[in-house]
Known about the structure:
Blueprint: E1 3-5, E2 12-14, E3 16-19, H1 28-31, H2 38-50, E4 55-57, H3 66-74, E5 83-88, H4 103-117, E6 122-127, H5 136-149, E7 152-158, H6 162-175, E8 180-186, H7 198-205, E9 208-212, H8 250-267, H9 271-280, E10 285-290, H10 295-302, H11 311-321, H12 329-332
Parallel strand pairs: 3-4, 3-10, 4-5, 5-6, 6-7, 7-8, 8-9, 9-10
Antiparallel strand pairs: 1-2
Helix pairs in contact: 2-3, 2-10, 3-4, 4-5, 8-11
Amino acid sequence: MEYRQLGDSGLRVPVLSxxxxxxxxxxxxxxxxxxxxxxxxxxxINLCLDAGVNLFDTSNVYSAGASEEILGKAxxxxxxxxxxxxxxxxxxxIGANDYGSSRLNLLKACDDSxxxxxxDHIDIYHMHGFDANTPIQETLKxxxxxxxxxxxxYIACSNFSGWHLMKSxxxxxxxxxxxxxxxQAYYSLLNRDFEWELMPLGIAENVGTIVWSPLASGKxxxxxxxxxxxxxxxxxxxxxxxxxxxxxxxxxxxxxxDVLDELVAETGxxxxxxxxxxxxxxxxxxxxxxxxxxxxxxxxxxxxxxxxLTVDQVKRLDKVSEILPAYPxxxxxxxxxxxxxPKLYKTE
Length: 348
């Protein structure tokens, strides 16, 4: 397993981590993701550790805390061998202060997560979304308190826009507080909006990227085919959260799938493995979160590492998946002499 430095920190993480949104299945939404319980979770975690994957990602809102509880039980006796990432900010309860990134909510949410996980510290604590109603200084000071107390080792964010992240980094620098070392963001062959602003920001400020939903809710898994019914065993068909749901994107999806099929024939790898490998060659990407409902899915995803697509193969995927960026990025592209374009693939 390859390990990479996570942003501007001394923390090294495996290029793959295991996402546990499939643990619990406590409501209809999360049942569509999975309903893994402790025994199966333990087997999946042992498979990960055997492959060198020691980072496990969860959130307090996954199955209303059940995901954290199951993960904590499955990691019994293994805490010193693993890294745990969890999150706060989204609603957890019906109270007026049961959501957001206020000092009140974060200190309580962290303590509650620690109890469910059965541990005394969280290795990477993410703000699951940006709270525009709480001063950034309040959020970051609360996180600094958690770091100084030893309850949190590193802080990160998720689903931020460029200005959210840049302003947060500026406030941390101004006061000498801990800063976000990583941004957990959606990025895939199907949706490359991340490259317009967040990737250049990550390059400039040395913020590592942890990718969620790298297979676009399964649309890049090889199950979706042109002129064929949508697979009914897929997450989206069962009510899970889609990341692409407009008719205008359907043709582009199948064009990407066509090229993936070509590369499947050339490499002997699966469409999912190729999609993951493409991401691992992108700037700022330090880690990809993979999920699995069963052991076979997990084993297949783990085989996305240990090899690389060629430069030509990467370029073919780049071309078929390219999209016209929104303003002002399309305008900026007209003046390449004013911009430092990120190096999107290896030249050797």
